[in-house]
Amino acid sequence: MTSMTPRRHGARGAALCGLLAAGFALGGCAATPPAPAPDAAAVSPVLSIDQNARVLEAVNAALAAASEATDPEMLAGRVTGPALTVRTSQLQVAQIRGSADLVTDLPSEYLQIILPATDGWPRTSFAITKATDELQPPRLIALTQDSPRDPYKLWGWVQLRPGVTMPRFADPKLGSELLAEDDASLKVSPRDVVAQYADLITTGDQSAFVDTFEPAEEDPFRALLASAAAAQLRNLEPDNPAIQGTYTFSATPTPGVAIQTVRTADGGAMVLAALDATEQMAAVENAKLAPSTKTGQALLQGQTVTNRLSSGFSDMVALFVPPVGSDERVKLLGYSHVQTSATIG
């Protein structure tokens, strides 16, 4: 992946309005947003489309400058939350490797804008980018403002799953309702659904919540984690007594990090949340377990490999949660899975 470079937008408001008038169907790496829902939220949107375009320009400029300099300190004014954790780690890895090719590309052209309707803080807006230049899926990004005097900052992002059909949202001229973590109008509250999904990707089909979510074969993040686990188990060579060992994976909601939730047109919600994940491997004494990825190798730099290896990941997931009373299951919309630590012992 390549570092992002900002693009200038002429007639920003008009351009975004034009994009938002298109239909939205994500197939493969192409994306078109659904027609906005006609229903107005109870409160007017807090940003105009043109104001939001200026916010996105400022965030993109900060990301581009930090990537060009591979300097995480340049992120502070425009990046926060899980996005700051991930981007800081990616830039540190870029410094070690002498290359920013693993820094997530966040395109600066957009297919859809989702603006909040609220009279309080903190407040969150969302945007869906176009596919990357390498035809990777579009990204869903979230930006938060903590108080009236604070700038909007990039809070997090996920890549949308290929072929996903996104839910519909209120027209950005009207604004979409932001929901509390304990909102009771959904099939599962935002706080509970994040905890349940973390349990699901930790325990798999043994999870008590397996029937709440779409089947495992339809969830690309669960498929990715299963594939990674299988590969690591092969690396441990269970039939070779010189290296055989154990592998475990676990995930929990990131402590102290808010869950971002916005109402969809059908009364459901899109939930964006951060997870902390850990992958642990242990082999027989005197075996050597080295990271298999470029990121892992950079993060472990200076440490001597042993028979134990622990890898930490800062993950983000976007889920669609149906309204209370719905027969639909909770569905993954997108995810981000980025290694941010590697330790021995």
Automatic annotation (TrEMBL):
Pfam family, one: DUF8094
Record keywords: Signal
Keyword Signal (UniProt): yes
Domain of life: Bacteria
Signal peptide location: 1-30
Keyword RNA-binding among record annotations: no
Residue ranges constituting the DUF8094 domain according to the UniProt record: 44-342
Name of the protein in its database record: DUF8094 domain-containing protein
The organism of origin for this protein: Xylanimonas allomyrinae
